[in-house]
Every structure is written in structure tokens, then in C-alpha cells.
Amino acid sequence: MERYYNKWFKILVIPAILLFTVVILIPFGMGLAYSFTAWRGSYFKGSEHWWGALVGFKNYIKVFHSQKFMTALIYTLKFTVVAVIFKNVTSLCLAMMVKKIGKGKGVFRTIYFFPNLLGGLAMGFVWSFIFQNVFSLILFGGDSPLQIPFLSNMLQDPKKAVIAMAMMATWQTAGYMMLIYLNGLNNIPEDLYEAASIDGASAWQKFKSITVPMLMPAFTVVFFLTLSGSFKMLDENLALTEGNFGTRMLSLQILLSTRENTPPNYGMAQAQAVIFFLLIAVISIVQVIITKRKEIEA
Q1: Gap between the Cα atoms of 132 and 136, Å rounded
Q2: CATH of the domain at 103
Q3: Which alpha helices (DSSP H) does 114-249 contain, by range?
Q4: Taking the complete model, does pTM exceed 0.85, yes or no?
Q5: Is residue 36 part of a domain?
Q6: How many domains does the chain have?
Q7: 213 with 261: CB under 8 angstroms?
Q8: How far is CA 210 from the centre of its chain?
Q9: Which of 145, 212, 216, 293 has the fewest C-beta atoms lying within 10 Å of its C-beta?
Q10: Is the pLDDT of residue 6 over 90?
Q11: How far apart are CA 71 and CA 63, in angstroms?
Q12: What are the C-alpha distances in Å from 285 to residues 74, 107, 289, 292?
């Protein structure tokens, strides 16, 4: 088998390389070039070719002077912090509970994973109904005896909307992240817990000294997925609030920026996309480096 792979590997990998080049590398290179031009979507302002419509860093300067972009950036950072905490805490708790279950473990895994199969827009509209009708009119607002102002009209307030979108994102992805944590928990030898119990360690001491260090590889993966996924959230933001009430995030800002200018300034929108890519790349790489170091220390 190894001889077969050595012989045919280069040939078999050619389709994947071609597909990656055509679908990812070439469009990325074109988008990067267009971000330095006066691109209007269907034509280049002042020229028939992109090199004749170069404007240098003017698009990037406009982006950083854009109040809407900076507001969306700050709001995205706030949401990401809240969502990453919600997702990781919830998924780890679910994994630890499922691990304790004897029979029917597979049923619970399926139930918790199922929300991850739903599309972003469909899920966003479902949760929009929950927040606006179930929460605001039936459970926590209106004439309900259980009056909780914070859980009422959550989508009309930017601070409440952060929590609302984090709740929805956690409900969707916690089951998937749970599987990663569950796999990590299953790889921890039970002998370590037994030895700690003999030494009189409490449940918290065992969690802090055994579970967390041994789960660092899983933390690396889950933190990367939750961090990048929170930054890139678009469909849910569009379905829940459409960016109104100061709840616009970066992905939605890039989408709407082409609609708010006449003619549409696709060059500036592409500059926003490049900045967005660099931001996610830098933060994700730093996160992976930090958690990888923790793995080594553990």
C-alpha cells in the first residue's frame, strides 16, 4: 500500500491542487488586486483594465475612516468574546455529562449535534421568532407574570443582541464542539482520576489538574473553530437583526457596503474583505500558537 501511495500520490493530488488553485488562490489574488482599484462591480472607473484604475491605498484609508466599519469591527469583537466563552463552556459541560451516561449515549450525541445541520438563515429566522414572540410576548414580557426585562426585546438593543446571537450560535455549534471535547475526554486514562481520588483530590482539583491539561489539544481545535466561526457569522446576523439597532457585524458590513453606495464601490468592499481576512488570520494564528504552547507545557 505504501508503495502504491508513493507511486501515485503526485498524480492523485493534481485534481485537488487544480481545484484549490481555481476556486481559492486565483479569486483571492484577483480580490487582492481589485482592492487597490476603483472597481465598480461591472467596470473599472476611468479605465477598461484594472491596472488603469489603480487608486493605491485610498480604499483602505476610506475603510479605516468609515464609522460604520469601525463600529462593526468593535461589535464583532464583543460578540466573538461572548460567543467563544458561551460555546466552549456549554460544549465542555455537555461533553462531560454525555461521558457520564451509560446507555443511550449515541442518542444524546445525535440530539445535541442535530442543530449544527441547520442552515444559518433558516435558524436565524426561527430564533428571531423565539426572541420576538416567545421571549418578548409570552415568557418574559407583555402580560407575563415572569417579567425579565433583559430577556424581552433582545434584538432591539445592541447589548442584549450580543447575548441573543451568542445564545443562538451556541445552540447551533455546541453539539459539534461537544464531540471534539468528548473524544478528548475519552482519551484521558481513568487511572489518573483513580490515583487523584486516592490522594484525596476534590472534583475541582481533578478537573483543574487532570482534565484541563489533558484536553489542551481539544481546546486548540475548538477555540480555533469557535473563534473563526464567530468572526465570520453572516446569515444569522442578517436574519436576526439585518444589522439594525447597532448590531451590524463585519461580514454583514462588507455585504451591505456595496448596497449603500451609488454606484457600488466594490473596490472598497474588497479592501474591507482583505482587512477582515488578515484580522481573522492573525487572531487565529496567535490563538493556535498560545494553546499549542499550553499543550507542550501540559
Answers
A1: 5
A2: 1.10.3720.10
A3: 120-129, 158-186, 190-198, 203-206, 212-214, 216-231, 235-240
A4: yes
A5: no
A6: 1
A7: no
A8: 28
A9: 145
A10: no
A11: 11
A12: 20, 35, 6, 10
